[in-house]
Design a protein that fits this description.
By secondary structure, the protein is mostly beta strands.
């Protein structure tokens, strides 16, 4: 046993701060997702938002895992939504790759909205546009604004 002097304990301004944090859940169809961060901080109990660094979101899809990676982002606990301002990398097991500079991902609905430019590659070619809407479950990407697609014959 030990005694703890409350006048000598360090205080923090954050409600919660965690290194190597992982949050796991499932969507309405029972598919698993995990959100991991090198560092996660919730600044206030009244604000259900976790600021994250070095984040990776993994979502289990019918043809394998899909992954989102970014340097920083925020997780809105009550909405199960990840928002990122800055470079974001999406990738899937079958070689699909996508890069955008700002994105909001609804983990439960498996939808993403990207703004600030997007480019990507898939087995059949490459694409780019000003913005995008993605249905991750259906693997459907809708490019918006100056959309370009280059098909590669094999």
């Amino acid at each position: 046993s030990f005694l703890l002097d409350r006048t000598k304990v360090a205080m923090t301004s954050e409600r919660l701060a965690v290194n190597q944090a992982t949050y796991r859940g499932a969507d309405d169809q029972g598919r698993a997702f995990a959100l991991s961060a090198g560092q996660a901080v919730q600044h206030s109990a009244s604000l259900p938002v976790v600021a994250m660094r070095d984040l990776v979101a993994t979502m289990q899809m019918k043809d394998g895992p899909t992954q989102l990676a970014a340097k920083t982002g925020e997780y809105e606990i009550d909405k199960e939504r990840v928002t990122v301002s800055g470079p974001v990398q999406f990738s899937s097991q079958d070689g699909y790759r996508l890069t955008t500079s700002s994105v909001a991902v609804d983990l439960k609905a498996r939808h993403a909205l990207g703004t600030g430019g997007v480019n990507g590659s898939l087995k059949s070619g490459t694409f780019s546009a000003d913005s995008m809407a993605v249905d991750l479950s259906e693997r459907k990407v809708t490019l918006q604004g100056r959309a370009h697609l280059r098909m590669v014959q094999k």
